[in-house]
Amino acid sequence: MSPLASAASTPRKDNVVRLASRGKPGRQRLLEQLFDRHARALRLFLKARLIPGEEIDGLVQDVFARLMAVDGLEEKMSESTGSNRAYLLTMANNLAVDRQRKSTRRKAYYVAQRGLERERMDERTPEEIVAAQLELEAMKAVILNMRPVWRRAFVLHRFRNMTYEDIALRMGITVKQVENCLAQAMKRIRKARQKIEAPG
After folding, report:
1. Which residues are CB-contacts of 164 (< 8 A; sequence separation ≥ 6)?
2. Which of 28, 70, 89, 104 has the fewest CB atoms within 10 Å, i.e. the most exposed one?
3. Distance CA 35, CA 13 (A)
4. Cβ of 78: how many Cβ atoms within 10 Å?
C-alpha cells in the first residue's frame, strides 16, 4: 500500500493521484510525498479559515487535483525550493476564496429566485401551486432514482458548477464517462418532463 493510500481518509485521493500522474511515475511519487507531508497542514489551515468540516477534504483533494495542471511541477516542488507548503497553502486559500465566491453567488441567486417565486405564487391559482409542487417532487424522485454514478455527476455539474474535468477527478472516472453519465441523467429528466407535461 502506498503512503498516500494509508494516509487518506477516502479512496478518492488515490484516484486523484492516479489520474494526475498518468504516464508520469515520478509525478505520482511526488504527489504521494506532498500529500504525506502537507495534507494535515492544509486541513488545519482550512479549518482555521472556518471552512465547514464536510468541505475540507474536498478542498484538499482539489488542491492535489489542480497540481496535475502545473507545468514543471517537479522542479517547483523540488526539495531545494523550501516553499512547497507555502505554495500549497496559497493554492488552498485561492480555492477556498473561489468556493466562497461561488457560494455567495448561489445564495444571492437563490434569494432572488425565492423572491420571484413568491411574486409568482401570489399570481397563481391554488391548482397551479399544487401542480408546481407535484412537478418539483416528481423531478426530485427522478433524480433520486437515477443510477448513483449518474446522479452524482449530475449534482456536481448542475448544483456545484463543476467542470467535466473536475468531476472526472472527483469521481475517479474519465471525462468521456462523465459526459455519458450527464447524457443519461438528462435523458431521464427529459422523459420525466414529457410525462408530466403530457395531456391527462
Report:
1. 157, 175, 178, 179, 182
2. 104
3. 9
4. 12
Cell of 135: 412537478
Q: What is the pLDDT of residues 61-100, one digit of tens each?
A: 888 888 777 777 777 776 655 578 888 888 888 888 888 7
- Around Cβ 195, how many Cβ atoms within 10 Å? 10
Question: Residue 92: which of 55, 45, 162 has the closest Cα?
Answer: 45
With a cut of 60, say whether residue 44 has pLDDT above it.
yes
CA distance 32 to 7: 9
pLDDT in tens, 117-164: 666 656 667 777 677 777 778 888 888 889 999 999 998 888 888 888
Identity at 146, one-letter amino acid code? M
The three cell numbers locating residue 75:
522542479
Contact between 4 and 32 under an 8 Å Cβ cutoff? The reply is yes
Q: Which CATH class is domain 125-200?
A: mainly alpha
% of the chain beyond a pLDDT of 70: 77
Report d(CA 38, CA 103) in Å as an integer. 26
Residues 6+ apart with CB under 8 A from 191: none
Name the band, by pLDDT with cuts 50, 70 and 90, for residue 9.
Answer: very low
27 touches 20 (CB < 8 A):
yes
| Percent of the chain that is helix, strand, coil (3-state, to 5) | 80, 0, 20
